[in-house]
């Protein structure tokens, strides 16, 4: 966040009314700010293009996720159908196994019955062989045994054939059940893989969405800074017009004076006016330099003094000082300040060096801001404050350690010296 550029937008009218500026200096300021606006516009277009690309990627991911979900629904339906078919066949298999078991029992009973008949028939034959005469009853009994034996054998053959068919049917159903079970397992594995892919896609989509939100915030920030620059440019153009009117008024007054005064007085008046203009021009140039420095390349100076207290007792560093390279947009950004993240809510903010308050009020984007002037043209800028102490007002002398406000979470700290920036980490003590 560029604290200086945004802050100058808030306090510029105060700075500009201090002394009238030369037209050429105002023109230079306008040209500088126009260049700055063009740079911001390019950066804005670059980030807008990246946002569009991210949006297209997210939409493609969403379509891919929807396709995977449709595949899962299809597989789930197929699995349900196969499971129903498998359960039906398993029920049929159980019935066939029960029938087979009954047939096995019946077959065993018939075989035992036939064996008993054969034994009796054999015994009866032996008895007949030993006897010399066979009665008609014995012959009829033997014939009956033969007939019964043949009937039992025929029944055994029929049962054996039926048993074989049932066994073959059971084998076929068992094979089908195994195939369906294997298919269900394969589909279940595929479903799990698809679900895993959907989870990964969702994570990636969330990541892309977070990145989109983050860079959208950057775009909003750049837009706000650009609006601030537009406001500065507008103020400069108003000052230019006012200055032109003032110069025209002075010119008309000078012409009237030339008619009323003598030649010597006119020359003296011109000399006095020239001297006055030169002095005023020098003063104007100083003011212009102070304002224009906000838009120059960032200059850094090494801090050589002793460490002082930190503005927060318990904190972590969320954003460091200095340049860094944005890997997504290929943008080189310079952080002129640091952002401290308080470890406790509603934390007290302390003044880190003796000085005098020169600014204490709310500023666009930066929430509440306090600027303290110190010796050797050094300034400390505290931003993102949620509260400013009632006693902290412009002109108020503050000692090191004085409570200047409170923050609920983040605090911005920027330090400058003679238009150069100092890394605040070199100045403040570490967190407790």
UniProtKB/TrEMBL annotation:
Residues 258-281 are annotated as: Disordered. InterPro entries: Dup_hybrid_motif, M23ase_b-sheet_dom. CDD domains: M23_peptidase. Residues 346-410 form the M23ase beta-sheet core domain. Signal peptide: none annotated. Residues 260-270 have a biased composition (Basic and acidic residues). It holds the Pfam family Peptidase_M23. This is M23ase beta-sheet core domain-containing protein.
């Amino acid at each position: 966040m560029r604290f200086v550029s945004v802050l100058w937008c808030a306090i510029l009218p105060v700075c500009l009314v201090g002394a009238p500026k030369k037209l050429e200096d105002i023109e230079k300021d306008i040209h500088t700010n126009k260049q700055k606006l063009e740079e911001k516009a390019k950066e804005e277009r670059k980030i807008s293009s990246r946002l569009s690309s991210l949006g297209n990627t997210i939409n493609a991911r969403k379509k891919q996720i929807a396709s995977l979900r449709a595949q899962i629904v299809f597989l789930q339906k197929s699995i349900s159908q196969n499971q129903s078919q498998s359960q039906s066949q398993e029920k049929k298999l159980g019935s066939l196994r029960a029938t087979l078991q009954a047939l096995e029992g019946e077959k065993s009973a018939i075989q035992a019955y036939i064996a008993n008949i054969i034994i009796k028939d054999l015994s009866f034959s032996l008895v007949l062989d030993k006897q010399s005469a066979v009665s008609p009853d014995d012959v009829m009994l033997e014939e009956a045994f033969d007939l019964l034996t043949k009937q039992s054998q025929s029944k055994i053959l029929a049962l054996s054939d039926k048993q074989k068919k049932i066994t073959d049917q059971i084998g076929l159903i068992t094979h089908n059940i195994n195939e369906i079970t294997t298919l269900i397992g394969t589909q279940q594995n595929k479903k799990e893989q698809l679900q895993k892919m959907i989870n990964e896609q969702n994570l990636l989509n969330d990541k892309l969405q977070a990145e989109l939100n983050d860079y959208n915030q950057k775009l909003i920030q750049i837009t706000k800074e650009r609006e601030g620059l537009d406001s500065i440019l507008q103020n400069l153009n108003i000052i230019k017009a006012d200055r032109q009117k003032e110069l025209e008024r002075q010119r008309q007054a000078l012409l009237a004076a030339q008619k009323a005064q003598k030649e010597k007085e006119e020359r003296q008046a011109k000399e006095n006016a020239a001297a006055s203009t030169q002095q005023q021009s020098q003063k104007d140039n100083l003011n212009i330099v102070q304002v224009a420095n906000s838009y120059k390349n960032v200059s850094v100076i090494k801090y050589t003094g002793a460490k002082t207290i930190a503005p927060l007792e318990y904190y972590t560093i969320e954003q460091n000082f200095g340049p860094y390279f944005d890997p997504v947009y290929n943008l080189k950004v310079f952080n002129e300040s640091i952002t401290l993240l308080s470890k406790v809510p509603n934390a007290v903010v302390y003044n880190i060096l003796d000085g005098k308050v020169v600014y204490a009020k709310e500023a666009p984007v930066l929430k509440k801001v306090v600027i303290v002037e110190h010796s050797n043209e050094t300034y400390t800028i505290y931003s993102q404050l949620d509260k400013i102490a009632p006693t902290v007002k412009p002109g108020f002398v503050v000692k090191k350690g004085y409570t200047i406000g409170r923050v609920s979470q983040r605090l911005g700290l920027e330090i400058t010296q003679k238009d150069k920036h100092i890394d605040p980490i070199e100045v403040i003590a570490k967190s407790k």
